[in-house]
Write a sequence for this structure.
């Protein structure tokens, strides 16, 4: 059960990374992230949570069709995350101009991808216990600290410019999270194996 949770997190990232690379190539735009953005995202939404989720006590019995079960959730989750992130990035590209435009664009895309990835983590962490809730909340709080502390903003090259685009990024993430929730429930009802 724990390995299924962790594998879903990692494969979701693989799907959205591949799809974003394809979209960037098709639209012939710069990749929306710097390596430091991906390090932050991977650490807070996959690395640290996967460590705790993998080692947690679990009485769930092993079930067959591991790969099929993981892919049923990871593929739609990765597709939703990639589309939401890319839409935010394209909107930010049309919104910002000037010398700091690229930093503002990538920051908006990073915000959307972080929020969507956090929702994937929140779904994977179910059923909730006090420590799982604490894990999800602490990862969100760590991202807020990065956004609030100037030297961390500078180090991770994250600067949310203005109010329109950051709130647009949040709105897109909310819609994507609702789509994730619907998709996970539908897959759970449709495929019981």
């Amino acid at each position: 059960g724990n390995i299924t949770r962790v594998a879903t997190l990692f494969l979701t990232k693989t799907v959205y990374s591949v799809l974003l690379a394809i979209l960037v190539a098709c639209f012939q735009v710069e990749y929306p992230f710097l390596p430091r953005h991906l390090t932050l995202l991977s650490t807070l939404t996959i690395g640290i949570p996967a460590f705790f989720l993998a080692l947690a006590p679990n009485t769930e019995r092993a079930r067959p069709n591991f790969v099929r079960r993981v892919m049923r959730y990871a593929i739609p989750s990765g597709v939703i995350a990639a589309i939401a992130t890319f839409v935010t990035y394209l909107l930010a590209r049309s919104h910002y101009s000037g010398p700091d435009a690229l930093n503002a664009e990538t920051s908006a895309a990073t915000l959307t991808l972080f929020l969507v990835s956090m929702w994937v983590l929140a779904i994977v962490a179910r059923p909730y216990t006090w420590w799982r809730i604490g894990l999800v909340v602490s990862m969100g709080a760590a991202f807020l600290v990065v956004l609030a502390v100037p030297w961390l903003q500078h180090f991770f090259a994250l600067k949310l410019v203005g109010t329109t685009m950051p709130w647009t990024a949040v709105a897109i993430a909310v819609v994507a999270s609702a789509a994730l929730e619907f998709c996970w429930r539908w897959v759970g009802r449709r495929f019981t194996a």
Notes: The CA atoms of residues 65 and 193 lie 8 Å apart. The chain has seven helices and no strands. Residues 2-190 form a domain with the Calcium-transporting ATPase, transmembrane domain fold (CATH 1.20.1110.10).
